[in-house]
Amino acid sequence: MALALPPRRPARLSPVLPVLAVVALLALPVAPGGDGAGPADALSALVVVFCAVRLLRARRRPLTRTAALLLGLPVAGLTLAALHAVSPGAGITGLGRYLQVFVLVPAAVLLLVRDRADFRLLAWSLVALAGWQGAVGVHQYVTGTGASYEGQDIRAVGTFGVSDVMGMATVVSFGLVCAVGLALGRTSARERTLAVCCALALLAPLALSFSRGAWIATTVTLTVQLVLAGPRRALGIGAAAVAAGVVLVGGLGVGTELLQERIDSITRVTDAPDQSVTDRYTMWAAATDMWRDRPLTGVGLKGFPEYRDGHASLALSSGSDTEGAGAAFRRQPLLSPHNMYLLVLSEQGLIGLLCLAGGWLALLVRAVRGLWRSRAAGGRGLDCALVACGLLVWQLVDFAYADIGGPATVLTAVSFGLITWWALAGADQVSPTPASRLSRRPTG
């Protein structure tokens, strides 16, 4: 009599698929002038609802005490700033945006990611999105159909258009950071080779974005990732990056005069700044002046545009000129200081900045501790650790030159979700190797 085989369980779909859908929606073109909430933002709200329903059905505790503390810490400063906003509508809108980016979507990603396989799936989705946006950006540069830069329609902006000229640079930077983290991990040779190829391919669209802030943040982040991965691997990957740069600049002609001028402008932002740098310095001074008036609570959410003219000097222009990439000429107003720390300081005061930035620093400490734990465990989960640490370092550096806003902001929320998962859950799943356990066992 033949023994009956046990029935096979049907393969269960990963709960992170809705988050993948959010990332996929960012590949769609953005309508000209559409600088508000888009389809990806709407879907991110549904992801939060999906996560809440899933928790109710499972009847389990949603967050640990540490996770609830770190994710709930910004709520105190945000609520206080919303209560004294310039108008109730501005307070509600600003509160909803901050909660989406720094609390709700990261919490949903934290709860939906089950293991390192789900983490890698999301990381590869960021690489794929970066590849698509980068390909569109390179095509815009080659065909002269990008955003206007120095009188030429050559600036690579991807599908985000001139309403969010930093969108493609942010997406490509995230993809590059993820690709480098995956390449430095202990995964299969095929996966590491693919990650290296993707990282090298993303260098060109990042350069053609003409985004100085993204260049600086990416350079710092990749350096940190290489150092954390180990000196020997850092030398090998660094040599490959230098070789790719030589090929791009010398062989393929990517190093145009405009690109060289943009690179040189980084070193002379104080000696001979252009108008964009002058505007940025002026808005930084205005934000600092607002904070001096109300040091603890700030001027309220969405209050920077209302108080800007009363605190800015005459050096500030009325706005920045944008055109190209399918959009007509438009004078885009300057509604933020283009510095996340100063934006929070001016609108939420010292209380809001300590709550928000304090949570980020705590995540950074826990993420780095998890990375050392991964290295001690023989490199298990090292790719996830490098991706998470890299995304957080990139964000912390970039926030000195940019702030939230635009269709690509929802990707910042997803990245904070990946960071939060590794810092609060992923690192705990890494157990020491048997050899390391024996080495720590007391003798005698």
| Termini separation | 57 Å
How much is the radius of gyration in Å?
A: 23 Å
What do the pLDDT scores average to?
83
**Secondary structure tally, helices:** 16
Shape: globular
Give short descriptive properties of this protein.
16 helices, 444 residues, 65% helix, mainly alpha, two-stranded antiparallel sheet
Descriptive report:
The protein is mainly α. Helix content is 65%, strand content 4%. It contains 16 helices and 4 strands. It has helices at residues 17-25, 39-58, 65-83, 88-112, 116-143, 167-183, 189-208, 212-229, 231-251, 257-265, 275-293, 304-311, 340-376, 382-398, 409-424, 434-440, and strands spanning 147-149, 152-155, 320-324, 327-332. Strands 1-2 form a two-stranded antiparallel sheet. The longest helix has 37 residues, at 340-376. It is globular. Mean pLDDT is 83; it is low at 434-444.
Quick structural summary:
This protein has 444 residues and is mainly alpha-helical. The chain is built from 16 helices and four strands.
Secondary structure blueprint with pairings:
Blueprint: H1 17-25, H2 39-58, H3 65-83, H4 88-112, H5 116-143, E1 147-149, E2 152-155, H6 167-183, H7 189-208, H8 212-229, H9 231-251, H10 257-265, H11 275-293, H12 304-311, E3 320-324, E4 327-332, H13 340-376, H14 382-398, H15 409-424, H16 434-440
Antiparallel strand pairs: 1-2, 3-4
